[in-house]
Amino acid sequence: xxxxxxxxxxIRNGTLIDGSGAPAASNTAVVIEGNRIxxxxxxxxxxxxxxxxxFEDIDATxxxxxxxxxxxxxxxxxxxxxxxxxxxxxxxxxxxxNALRAARNAQKILRxxxxxxxxxxxxxxxxxxxxxxxDAGLVQGPRIYTAGRFIVTYGSIGDYEPSWVGTPExxxxxxxxxxTDMITEVRRQTKHGVDFIKLADSTWGDTQTIAREEIAAVxxxxxxxxxxxxxxxRGAGSxxxxxxxxxxxxxxxxxxTEAELYAVAEAGVRIMPTTTFLFEALEVGKELGxxxxxxxxxxxxxxxxxxxxxxxxxxxxxxxCGTDTGNSPVMPYGVLHAHEAExxxxxxxxxxxEAITAYTRDNAYVVGLEGELGVIEPGKLADVLILDAxxxxxxxxxxxxKHLSVVIKDGRQVDLLPQxxxxxxxxxx
Length: 429
What we know:
Blueprint: E1 8-16, E2 25-33, E3 36-41, E4 55-59, E5 64-67, E6 69-71, H1 95-110, E7 114-119, H2 126-135, E8 143-146, E9 150-152, E10 173-175, H3 179-191, E11 196-200, H4 212-224, E12 228-233, H5 238-245, E13 249-252, H6 258-267, E14 270-272, H7 275-284, H8 292-315, H9 339-347, H10 352-359, E15 384-387, E16 404-409, E17 412-413
Parallel strand pairs: 1-4, 1-5, 6-7, 7-8, 9-10, 11-12, 12-13, 13-14
Antiparallel strand pairs: 1-2, 2-3, 5-15, 15-16, 16-17
Helix pairs in contact: 3-4, 4-5, 5-6, 6-8, 7-8, 9-10
């Protein structure tokens, strides 16, 4: 059967929020050829929408057009949430099962309007394989930019097992208690195809577990191998140390003082607060078994995170958006990926347009595609959403895919109506 050229996709008559921060523009046409946007604005001459063999027409009258969302902090292979009949803890099932579950989770994320995700940590290099499978068209899911397991020391997040057990492959972290071991792990992970490296300090930021010189050594090795590097750091000195060492972005930073954030601003480093996880943990943590002591810690961090958002905005620190989906049962896939925008608007004093820009143009950085993604303009990758409600009037309409009419990733429309198993309600792959 002879191969036919793909149709040119035309989206017209909608109100465009292009992701750059520019005012919304009504009655706009967006033209897509292949996986790239070729025209934005007036409908170009030479386009005959009656020629259905060459053109596919989407009439977006009364709807809003914007770039695909980018969630800068998702986990897919940790074993969350639980699946009935299988072990519920992270990593206690076999890697094959976790890989298939990760594929299903990726599918759900894409159908919620998130066309790209950054994954700061996974097990068995599952996300590397899933990234490549999605790119090859074998599995439906968002564009993936991924790290491997956290590089941790004793006392870091991920160091949950007794010292005589260490950190087996199914756990979040890989123990590296000196610079030599850390550099070796950077080399191992880059050999296996990760896009970036993740260091991890203490769970809640009460102590600094990774020394300044260790952070600097890992940053140097990662950059030498053309990999970016991020760090889980809530405070306790590691935020300032990481910024001065030249990490590419800092996850959380929710206990950072104004002086630490000033150091971050001076270094030109980006932060990703992931306040969604903190807020959701406070909302439902009690019923899921979190202790009062832990909930007090989470509340402390959540309250401080609000101050961090405001201070970062004042100091000009670039804030990116991530949810920590998959880290815990409080963060289900496909549901809360835009919640960070709501928090930024409600508590951080950002405008809806600023929040959208953070979720699109600015978050392109965290998937390694700044300048290529996150803005609807000629030459950019064609990740586009069409919504039936105005996110500038109510930022909450971005949540959970409830107002999505169309999702386009790489110039192709995504099927938003997966077949469901009537008994389990689990989407079939």
